Amino acid sequence: MKDNTLYYGDNLHILREHIKDESVDLIYLDPPFNSKTDYNILYKEPSGEPSKAQITAFEDTWHWGEDAAITFQEIINSAPPNVVEMMLAFKKFIGLNDVMAYLTMMCIRLIELKRVLKNSGSIYLHCDPTASHYLKILMDTIFGKKTFRNEIVWHYTGWNKIMEDHFERRHDIILFYTKSDKPSFNSYAIPWKDKAEYVKVRKQKIRTDEIGKEYVLSDKGSGKRVERYLEDALLYGKPVDDVWEIDKLTSSAKERLGYPTQKPEALLERIINASSVEGDVVLDPFCGCGTTIAVSQRLKRNWIGIDVTHLAINLIKLRMNDMFNIKPKNDYMVIGEPEDIDGAMELASQNRYQFQWWSISLIEHARPHQEKKKGSDTGIDGYLYFDGDKKAIIQVKSGGVSVKDIRDLGHVIDREGAEIGIFITLEEPTSPMKKEALQKGFYKSELYKKDYLKIQILTTKDLLNGKKPDTPPIVSSYKKAPVVNLTDNAELDL
User: Fold this and answer.
1) 5-183+241-337 and 362-479 share one CATH topology?
2) Does domain 362-479 have CATH number 3.40.1350?
3) What are the two backbone dihedrals, phi and then psi, of residue 80, each rounded to the nearest 5 degrees?
4) Using the 8-state DSSP alphabet, how is residue 477 labeled?
5) Separation of alpha carbons 487 and 418, rounded Å
6) What pLDDT digit, counting tens, does each position of 112-170 carry?
C-alpha cells in the first residue's frame, strides 16, 4: 500500500496542497479543544499538566489572535453564504475569545474536509461534550442538516466519584455526518452469546413448532410480530445503536502504548467497518498516536494521516513497524520531513522542539524523553533501550556546541546510570569534543562480549546518510512507552 501516506504539517495546508477533491471515503477526526486540559498531545507531565513542548504546536492555532482573525476574514470572503452567516452569528454571540478561535479554525478545515470527501463518504467528528453543541451547529451548516446521521455517545466505565455539583462525566460525543443522502454504510449487529442471553435480554418466550424447532415471535415493526426460528434470531444478533459501550484503555490493556491520549482500537474498528470497505481511503487529519492509521492498516483500508508534530509522526512510524513490520519509503510515504541538511537547518530555525523530535526519529526505535517538570531541562531529549533494560541517553543540539556539552552529557550519563550517551549535533563537532568523548571510555556488553563507546557523537548529516549509533541490538521503544497514572479529571483523549 505505497499510496498510504503520513504528512507532517498544518492539516489545512496539507488538505489544500495534497488531497484531491472527492478522493476520501471516510474521515475520522478528534481535534484538540482549547480548554486547559484538552490539548491533543501524546505526553503529559507526571504532575498531570500538558507537556509544555507540545503545547507550542497548538498555542497559535487555538487562541484568538492574528492567525484566527485572518482565517475568520478568509471565511467571510470565500465561504458559502450560509456558513458566513453562521460564523458572524457565532462571533456576535461568543465574542472574540478562544472558543471563537477554535470554531474559526475548525470551520475552515471542515470546509476542506467536505471538499475531499467522496459523495458516498462519511465523516465522524469526535468531540468533548463541552464543545459538541457548537460543532453540531457548525456541521449542520457546512454539511447540511439532512446529512446528519447520529450523535453517537461513547460511554465508558470507570471509578465514579461523588461529585460536589454535578454527576460524574463518563462519555464523549461523536458526530456522524455524510456527504450525501446515499452514503456507503454497513450496519451490523453484535452476536448473541447464547440462547440464555437472548431470552434474558429480549424477554421472549421460546416456542416449538410442529416439527420440534424452537422459534420466537420477533418484532417486525409497526406493532407487528413475525415468527422467527431461534437459530435465525441468534444469528441476526443485537443491532448496534448510537450508544457505544466501549471501555477506555486501562494501564494493563494489551494494546496500550502507555500514552494517556490513546483511544481503543475497538472504537475506530467500529467506525471504519461501518463506513468503509476494504480498499477505501480513510483520512485522519489529527492523527496523533495513530490509532486510526493502525486500525485502517489492519482492516486493509488505504489511509492518510496528518499531524502537526514530528513527535506524532515518529510514534506512528514506530507503531507501524512494530505492529505490521512496515517501514516508510518502502511501504508507505512520509511527506513534510526534512530530507537534507538545508531542510534540517530550516526546521531548526523554525522550532527547536520539532527539530529535536525529528532528529530523534532518525534513530530507529528511539523515543523522546518526557520532562519531569514543566519547562525543566534534565539534559535528556530521548532514550534508546538495549541489552534488556540497558539504555542510551540521547541529546540533540541545533547550534552553538562545544566541549562543555560533551562533559555535561557525561555527567547526565553518570547521574542517570545510563550505559551510553548519544550526542546529535547539526554542526560539525570540534576536535576537543571528540577527544572529550573518547575519554569517557567504553561500555562493555556482557551479553554480546563487545565494547561500545560510552559517548558517541553523530551529526545530522551522518544520520541522513544512514549512519547509526553503535549499540547492542535495540529494544522497540514502541513497547516501552511510559505509563503515566492520571486522575480521571486529568485524562486526555486522542
Assistant:
1) no
2) yes
3) -60, 150
4) G
5) 31
6) 999 999 999 999 999 888 889 999 999 999 999 999 999 999 999 877 777 778 887 88
Q: What is the mean pLDDT of residues 389-407?
A: 93
The pLDDT score that the predictor gives to residue 2 is 53
pLDDT by residue (tens digit) across 74-117?
Answer: 999 999 999 999 999 999 999 999 899 999 999 999 999 999 99
Q: How many CB atoms lie within 10 A of CB 364?
A: 15
Beta bridge partners of 5: 304, 333
Helix (H) / strand (E) containing 478: none
Across the range 314-324, mean pLDDT stands at 89
Q: How many CB atoms lie within 10 A of CB 4?
A: 21
Contacts of 441 (CB under 8 A, 6+ apart): 454
At 448, the pLDDT band (50, 70, 90 cuts) reads confident
DSSP helix/strand/coil, 105: helix
Cell 494494546, residue located: 255
Q: Phi first, then psi: what are they for 224, rounded to 5°?
A: -95, 155
CATH topology of domain 5-183+241-337: Rossmann fold (3.40.50)
User: Taking the CA of residue 395 as centre, how many other CA atoms within 13 Å lie in the half-sphere pointing to its CB?
Assistant: 24
Q: Determine the Cα–Cα distance for residues 321 and 311; give it in Å rounded to an integer.
A: 16
Hey, where are the domains in the chain? 5-183+241-337, 189-239, 362-479
Strand 382-386 to strand 474-475: parallel, antiparallel, or no bridges (unpaired)? antiparallel
DSSP state of 442: E
Sign of CA dihedral 334, 335, 337, 343: positive
Block residue for cell numbers 529494544: 475
Note whether 419 and 390 are within 8 A (CB).
Answer: yes
> Exposure pattern of 411-421 as b/e (b: 16+ CB <10 Å)?
eebeeeebbbb
What is the pairing mode between strands 24-29 and 117-127?
A: parallel
